[in-house]
Amino acid sequence: MISGRSILIAAALILASAPAWVPVLGPAWVPAARAADADWTLDRLGAAIANTGDGPVPFIEERAVDYLDEPLMLSGYVAREGARIEKHVLDPQKESVVFEGDSVTVRTAEGSVHTLDVDDHPMVQGLVAAFQATLQGRMEELAERFSVALEGGEADWRLTLTPKTAAMKEALSAVILSGRAGTIRTIRIETADGDSSVMTLLHDGA
Predict the structure, then answer these.
(1) Taking 90 as the threshold, does the pLDDT of residue 10 lie above it?
(2) Which of 12, 144, 172, 182 qualifies as a FRET site for 136, CA 20 to 30 Å off?
(3) Which H/E stretch holds residue 136?
């Protein structure tokens, strides 16, 4: 059985697959809160993200979990081809997550494979649906499962998604994306138990 923590961390890869990249800003970089520009709306952000194409890109990721004394650093790449989205961790050990259709498949470093049907897990289904809606620019759909807050402007924005349903709140505190125009720079996932994951997308393998 795959843990809820694994699914929450893996879910970040859907948003990480947007391929308009910017230089690395550091694994723990999260922009400070600021007021949103009046002319930078959710509709404009959605259109900008939707206009990016598919393609693989390297990443670095920092995970802070309660049973580790220091954050865990990972690196690898994400790839997206149509509805199929993959995340491959290469260091410090190999693991992968694949989203395709209504299923999520996780291959662990030990070689075990776990597959679940998102329709059987409302929290996971909500995350996947929300992330796909963001990538396709359907920002209005986010409000069905999340409270949505957009800060900043086109040159430097932050989008915070806070779950609405009780099922999602049991495991997820927030998903925070930052970027510029249609480029997603970082994705931060904060779990209800205090763990967190920050993925930073790299520019041209830098």
Answers:
(1) no
(2) 172
(3) none
**Rounded-to-integer distance, Cα 204 and Cα 206, Å:** 6
Residue for token digits 């759909």? 141
Helix axis angle for 122-135 and 42-50, nearest 10°, is: 80
Mean pLDDT of the chain: 77
CA 13 – CA 111 distance, rounded (Å):
20
Regarding predicted confidence, which is higher, 135 or 31?
A: 135
Q: What does the angle CA 104 – CA 142 – CA 40 come to, to the nearest 5 degrees?
A: 125
Amino acid at residue number 82: G
What is the C-alpha to C-alpha distance for residues 114 and 121, in angstroms, rounded to an integer? Answer: 14
Strands 146-153 and 172-180: unpaired
Q: Which of 125, 107, 124, 105 is nearest to 115 (CA)?
A: 105
Encode pLDDT of 126-175 as tens digits. Answer: 777 777 777 777 888 888 889 999 999 999 999 999 999 888 888 888 98
| pLDDT value at 37 more than 90 | no
**From CA 55, how far away is CA 78, in angstroms rounded?**
8
Nearest to 10 by CA among 150, 112, 138, 131: 131
Cβ neighbours, 10 Å, residue 71: 16
The residues with which 95 forms a beta bridge, in sequence order, are: 89
Residues 170-198 pLDDT 10s: 888 898 999 988 888 888 988 888 888 89
Q: Report helix, strand or coil for 39.
A: coil
